[in-house]
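Lecture 7 notes: from sequence to structure.

We start with a single chain of 472 residues. Read the sequence below before looking at the structure.
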Amino acid sequence: MAQAERISQDAPTDRLLAFIEFLRGRDILISPADSLVAMEVAGLVGYNDRKLLKNGLGSALAKSKFEIEVFNEAFEQYFGAPSPDKAKSENSPSKADDNPSSQELGEQLSQAMQARPELAKSLSSELVDALQSGDEAAIAIAVETAAQQVDVSAIKLLTQRGQYIRKMLDALGEQALRDAAVELESTEPAAFEAVQALREQLRNKVRDRVDRAYMVHASGDAEDMLDEALSNMSLGNVDQHHRARLKRLLERMTRKLAARHGRVRKRVKRGQLAVPATLRKAMATDGVPFKPQWRKSIRRKPQILILCDVSGSVAAYAKFLLLFLHSLQDILPRTRSFAFSSNLGEVTETLRALPVEIAIERVNLKYGGATDYARAFEDFASLAMADINRVTTVIILGDARNNNTNPRLDLLAQIRSKCRQLIWLNPENQRSWGSGDSEMPGVIRNCDMAAECSTLKQLERVIDDLLVQLNS
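Now the structure, written as tokens:
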């Protein structure tokens, strides 16, 4: 009895903590202090008034319009329909009509158990008594005890749902009800229906408990698994259905890089001692250098020039590269963007003036077509070669396939000779470099770095390394 009382008292708190974990899995930030406030609110308002509980927890855990919407949806999903007691108080006709038949079935089962002592012995348990009497508290305690015994919180996959339901039913002793149903099916139809009703009632309770455990412990893991899969999937293979999720992943990566690199404090260096200037200053103090003078050098701000091939084969990759880089404007230095297939043009102002996704669509329409690296490099040379200096990083995204024509790699070498570093990102698998009309062997010789970049994870790694270099 003491254990039952302890489980009964702990169950609401455990369920509230599980609900808080459920909310965290839906991108609601909840601190330990918020959790304590929520527990205090739940203790004050109680769990009987569902609407009051929802409003109280919402005021403690949801802090913005977005979080309120997520909270309301999550509350209904997690806590489900109103409690049986409330449902009874609403005088539902369907419930009222069901009660007499349930009572009759219970009486039939009782009569069968009286007539057959061996059946009464096999069905003699607190759980069966609770099911017959409708003791919701006792049933909930039994189900929660079984959940702890089978460790239902370890559920990770939806396919494990049936396994845990079966494990919990076995832990509850549902086998006795099954055996009784088999024995009564042909001899006592009414008693058989009563046993089946008890089995169904118990199965529903167990199914609800497993579903709740899956929502809290597995759905978040499943979301993480999907995010991980998308992060490592080639951007060209992501279907339209997952584009919104991919965009959220991109925003999350942006926030992470901003947090990592946005607060970098550069160490001030005074440089070398300026001896002539120091001696001149020291003349006023009889040659004692109280005020050393240092050689001054003007540090030019680094800039990034991005060239994106937006032809059909790499358009998806270019879109996410531009989206990613322009999401990092707060921590990136001066950035200029260029798009090309054959002719090349600067699209920096287009991307700044319009929402990025709309701007990128317009860029694809204007510059999409057959690839011609020679013409693109010639256009870039006339547009930006004069602006390249030793603090410029040039990033080119393309598959280096030039339809078996001269790509003018001499212009690429000229760009490299003027800039700080030249990075080439190729969305193709590295094993394909140099095959067919690929010019990657020549590209590699004229770049400081050439890397495969077809996934968000690879893109994040490249930009992370670049920011480390720029902040060093």
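The chain has three domains: 2-80, 85-228, 302-471. Keep this in mind for problem set 3.
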